[in-house]
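Request: Not sure, any thoughts?
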Amino acid sequence: MLKKIMTYALAAIAIMLAGLATRHYLLTPVIPAGTISTRAFFAAEFPDLDGQPQPLRQWQGKTIVVNFWATWCPPCLEEMPELSALQASHQDQNLVVLGISSDELDKIREFASQTPVSYPLLSGDIDAMNIGESLGNDKGVLPYSVIIAPDGSLVKSYFGLINQALLEQDLRDLQLIGK
């Protein structure tokens, strides 16, 4: 009898925790885009696959789709071909996709040697998560993506998996790419 009661109590607690987690991660509104500063983003620099520091300010004045990812994150890997296609389709429209990983450089190099993409991959290690948080990722979720307009303002953010069609529609709606 006691075992049965304990089982039901644990199940009830698990359901409540799952409900709270769902509420927190899915129903908490994203911070309005106009209230987030990109100052920390443009002040940062991360190494590319060759280990060369790349200052993020070099992309100021462009429409930037920043994707925070990790090699161990299945949804991150799933969306990479979509991001690669977006970069290839719209690079002539002042658009750049940047992949900033929370992994160490060696892991990213190994990944990129097996799965090349058409956009820059940078190693942010732990600093990537800090920059992501400064851009609204208050949940520490991966993948996390943002769109930064040419004027430097953050205009859209996404928790979780994205695809080329969604990004293109939002970029059109924001008048950052042509119809």
Remarks:
- DSSP finds six helices and seven strands in the chain.
- The mean pLDDT is 88.
